[in-house]
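Data availability excerpt. The first of two example chains:
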Amino acid sequence: MKKQLLVTAMAVGISLCGFAQTKGTNAVSFGVNSTTNKVTVNNYENKVKNNSFTLGYGYFFKDNNKIGLDLTYGRNKNTYNNNMNNDELKSYGGNLSYQRYFPLVKTLFAYAGGKAGYTYGKNNSQSFTTSTQTTSYTSNQYAVGAYGGITWFVSKRFALETSLLSADITYSKTEQNEVNFNSYVTKSEYTSFNLSSQGFINNLGFKIYILF
């Protein structure tokens, strides 16, 4: 009887450890987000489609400590004024991250970490009204930040994670080219430096992990 109780206690203890946050564990994450918003008022229509994709890899180099790499791609298209105006933004990026996990209840963990990333963006805007005009933007953005959230290690092979808090310092450089109906070209360049933070649940995002 004592032996059975001991085995049962060990099994329960193992089940509460979360398995996945142990040294040597690999974690592949992915995410897909697609939204479409459409507003029609009289003869005016505004349609916005947004798609984003994330693929990442992480490695627990010691218990409850993970380093990772994420690659991202996004596409946002805005069509309005009965297709007379189009605005499309594409972005490509990646970031390196570090996360440390803290046990809360059973397989539920809190985490805190930091990251450094780079994003390249390209925007094209066209107007087909009385005079055709094309405006394009290219941007390079560099960011470092801290963030935190909650992770649920659902099983030995799967985990769900959400980001709740973040603070970022970003530097970006943008170049603008504008071509009007008579092929007159205007070029401009500007830079920006920004410090931003997101409060509790203001920057909610989810990740799904496959662990092995």
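And the second chain:
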Amino acid sequence: MAISDRVLRYLGSTKNIAGSALGLLGLGAHFLGLAGAYWPVVVAGLYGVGALLAPPERVRLTISHAEVEVRQLRADLDTLLRRIDGRFPADVHAAVHGLAEVLGGVLGRAEQLTSSPDELHVVSQTIRSYLPASLESYANLPRGYALTRRADRERSAHEELLAQLALLDAQLRKVADAIHRGDEQALRDQGRFLQDRFGGSDLDL
């Protein structure tokens, strides 16, 4: 594992969170004039205490169903992106890659995503059905026809595709918000745990 990966894993670990919480308590004591001239030592010491008291990270060697499902979805998304490369106008490519960025963030939360069937359904159908169907229908049209607005239509096929991509983007951002609200709730739960264990804290959320 690369050093950067180890650093990122530690930054998100329970030990770092607990140590940081106590370190902030020491920093708060400094601003209140309680830590004296040795406040850096107090902050570092409290961080160390928090890191030592925090439960160790659980070792997990098995591959969860969530990881298997999300890994396949990510592979399907990558395959789709390769297939459309160079086949569409620049604005369509930009919209699709914007969608892919949102999807990538959601797929990075495998356990949260697969624990919510509604959100998982939207993501799965977007990657495997909604997005490919919209792109395929457009790709099968002659380029000149796709870009021309017909008298009996409100918008051209090109504009219709962009509108569909915008609808998918809006829905996926709702899914991402739901996933991140779950992460925020986990942070709040951790704050309540630390408050119960160590007393009042400036970290109350």
